Amino acid sequence: MKKSIAQRLAILSLMMLVAGLQAGCATSGNPKDPIEGFNRAMFAFNDGLDKAVIKPVAQGYVAVLPQQARNGVSNFFANIGDVFIAVNNLLQGKVPEAINDFGRVMVNTSLGVLGFMDVASDLGVEKHEEDFGQTLGWWGVGDGPYLVLPFFGSRTTRDAFGLVLDLKADPVAHLHDIAERNSMVVTRTVDLRSQLFPAEKILDEAALDRYAYLRDAYLQRRRSLIYDGNPPREKEDVSDAGSADRAAAPAVATTAFTTAARE
Hints:
Elements: H1 5-23, H2 36-64, H3 67-91, H4 95-110, H5 119-122, H6 132-138, E1 146-149, E2 153-156, H7 157-169, H8 178-194, H9 197-206, H10 210-226, H11 235-239, H12 243-246, H13 250-253, H14 256-262
Antiparallel strand pairs: 1-2
Helix pairs in contact: 2-8, 3-4, 3-8, 6-7, 8-14
């Protein structure tokens, strides 16, 4: 079976990660980010790719398509994602939430015209956010070191394994028509990148060190998601004066590359 763009990029990302680790990367004193040298290099690579290609395309996308049309595109892909959010809720033993998620899919696929309209949210049906990385965390798998994957951005080691399962379960990646499949992957990536523009302004104004800001925000956000918004307190939370500022930009922590891989 021929692989999609996302699957090829995932394989290339993991190959580059292994090569970088074998080459011997600079380490740091941060126990959550022991390969900071490698991660900063990958962050610079992703940031350069974003500025050169993805962000300009997303800006053109916003300029050409009206907000209502972009909302429809976002809703369509979110409806596909709700299927696997439901599956992950089931794997975590959250049966009521899974029923809720499947209900969202049924309502939006039928009344919402294949998901282009989010009728379920209008009716008060809650949207959740779950993925295989969170499921692994729910089953007790530890975070592992922080990683920045080429193309896919911020991950924990656990989330990197979850990424493989996310991509394997992605129905878009399994479309038989190659042109249709790749165009949908590109459209989804560009749409997701366009949604980050408002949060990006917060980052530009608040962060002196973009890498550290995004790393800490990503780890904080993932911890919150795994514990369903009520994580146990860590010692670092008490002494870290910047945690409140970083919490203002959790959406930015999921970069265009990270978000595209998760959906």
